[in-house]
Design goal:
28 residues, mainly alpha, single chain, rod-shaped
């Protein structure tokens, strides 16, 4: 579980970064 958690958080961070980039492209 401890080794699984960082991967899960990293995956979420990656998704957030992608969505932020997508929103940024939409706005400008």
């Amino acid at each position: 579980m401890i080794s699984y958690l960082p991967n899960y958080m990293y995956y979420i961070l990656r998704c957030i970064q992608k969505s932020d980039l997508y929103i940024f492209k939409l706005q400008f």
